[in-house]
Design goal:
single chain; 112 residues; alpha+beta; 2 domains; three-stranded antiparallel sheet; 4 helices; elongated
Length: 112
């Protein structure tokens, strides 16, 4: 299966006063060293919604950041499922082909 280049995982979440960011492993250290919130390890800025409820706003931003940070792991897991051959020749072949089709569609959407 061809791979589309992206920032290699794992990705981590970095929080600051007014921001939530997702970056490649080592991003937190890079920010501390360079005192800059962007750079080569930055993957995504997660926006906080403009609401008056800070706790709700923060929880939503963190949930979004966790989902984004999990993307490389999710894509790897789907790729492993798509490459499984365990049930394709057994009695559960129809089930395996359905899993295969779903996993391949998700991988394509993820750029894998």
């Amino acid at each position: 299966m061809p791979h589309t280049p992206h920032t290699p995982g794992p990705w981590e979440i970095v929080e600051g006063g007014n921001f939530v960011k997702v970056g490649a492993k080592g991003f937190q250290h890079w920010i501390e060293k360079h005192h800059y919130l962007g750079g080569p390890l930055s993957v995504a800025d997660v926006q906080r919604n403009a609401t008056d409820d800070y706790k709700e706003n923060h929880a939503l931003a963190m949930a979004n950041a966790k989902l984004i940070a999990a993307a490389p792991d999710l894509a790897d897991a789907l790729e492993k499922i798509a490459n499984l051959e365990i049930y394709k020749n057994g009695s559960a072949a129809d089930y395996a082909y359905k899993i295969d089709a779903i996993a391949r569609a998700a991988l394509k959407k993820a750029g894998r």
